[in-house]
Prior knowledge:
single chain; alpha/beta; TIM Barrel; 6-stranded parallel β-sheet; 20 strands; Dihydropyrimidinase/allantoinase; Metal_Hydrolase; DHOase/Allantoinase_Hydrolase
Amino acid sequence: MKVDVVVTNARIPQGDDTVLTNILVKDEKIAGFVSELEGVTYDREIDAKGHLTLPGCFDSHTHFMDPGFEHRENFLTGTSSAAAGGLTTIMDMPCCSKPSVRSIPELESKLNRIKDKAIIDFAFWGGVTGEDIRNGDYHVVQEQADYGVCAFKVYMTPSVPTYERVTDPEMLEAFRLVAKTGLVVGIHAENFAMCDFYVKKFQAEGRTDGPAWAEARLELAEKAAIQLGISFAEETGARLHIVHMSTGIGAKLVGAAKQKGLDVTSEACPHYLMLNYQDSMTEHRQFAKIAPPLRTKKDNEELWEGLQNGSVDFMGTDHAPYEIETEKEGVVDGVALDIWNSFPGIPGVETLVPIMVSEGYLKGRLSLSRLVEVLSTNAAKQYGIYPKKGALHIGSDADFTIIDLEKEWTIDQKETYSMAKYNPLHGIKLKGKPYKTVVRGNTVYEDGKGIVGKPGYGQFVKRQNIQKLSRTIHFSGNDFRP
C-alpha cells in the first residue's frame, strides 16, 4: 500500500484508554490505522514517539483582529500562536475586523486579506447586529449561512463601534432569523443596563482598583442575560450557545435548559477555570480585564463540575489581544489608561490545550474521553465541520495534536508567538505540552523547533453539515435547580 505520510508510534484515545498505532495519511486525509508497517510505502514519516495523539484540537472562539487592527494581532501571529498551542483549527469572530463581517462582501474581504497568512485551518462566525435588524437587512443572515459560516454572534453589550449590540427585541428578531438557518446563535451574555449602571456608579465613587471591574459587571448580569437567552430560544426554536460563560450559576442554568430538552449549549475559557478576580485583578489589574470578568474560586470549581457533567459542552479561549502601550496601560491623548478605560481582552490560544491537559486530564478532573470532547469533538459537531475536523476517522482530515504528557514547563507571557506579551496566567506551572501540531498530514509546529509550517498553508473551512450536540447530563439532587 502506498500513502503519503505515516504518523508512527501514535498513542491514540480509545474511550478512556489508549492504543499505540501508526496512522496512514493520503491526500491529507486519514487513510487507515495499522500496528505494523510491513507492506506500506510512504514518502514522509512523522514520529509521535509514543506521545498522546488527539484528534486536532479546535478553538471555536478567537478574535485575531485582522484585517483592520493588525497592531494588536494578525492572522499569521494568531495562527502561529494557536499552532504552538496544539490547535489545528480556529473559528474567528466577526466583530474585531474592518469591516466587521455581516455580509458576503465583508466575508470575502476578510478572507482575501488573511488567507495567505494562516498557518492552520480556520472557519468563520457570521454576524448580525442591532443595526442590521433596524435597517431590515434580514437577508444577510441566510446569505452568510449559505456561504458557509458556522454560527452567528450577537452582543448584548457593546463590542466595537462597527459591531453594535442588540436591544432585547432586536435580539429576539435575530433569534428568529438565525433559527430559520438551523445554525447556532452565540450570545455574549451580560445584561447591558445592569453593567452600565454599576460601572458608572463605581466610577462616581472613585474606585480605580482592579477588582472594581469584576464587581461592577456582577454575576447577576450574566445570570439574567442567560435566562433571557434561554427564554428566547424556547420561544423561537433557535439553537442557543452561551460563549465564554464565566459563572457557576450559568452552568446550572444551561444544565436545567438541557434537562427541559432545549437546544442550549455553553463554553468556558481556561481563565474562568484557573483565576479568580480578587487575586488576579489585584495583581494584574487591566491585564486581567476581560468581559465577562473573572469570577470567584467557587465559580472556578463549579465550571470544572460543569465540564464533567456536560452542562459546559466544550472549551474556547476568547483570544482577544490588545497593544500594551496604547490600549492596556500608559497615557493616550493625555488620558491615563486605568481599569475603566483600558480595553478588555487577553490572549489564550497558546495555553488552552496545555491547561486542559495539565489541570483537567492529568489532575483527574476530566477523563480522557471527556478531554477529547471538550477540545476536539464537540465544537466540531456544534459548528458543522465534524467529522472533517475533530475526529480520528478514516476520511477525516489528518489533523493531530501530539502531546508530551511528561514535559513540565511554566507559562511565560514573553515567550509567545502572539503579539500580546501579557497574560494573567503568567507563571503558572503545567505538566504536558504540545510536541507536534499536524494539519492535514503536515507538521506546522514542533517543540524545540517552533513554527515549521508556511503562511498560507491554512485553509478556510466552510460548514459541512448541521449536527446537534447530544450529551446526557449527569446530576444528582438539585444540582441544576437555578
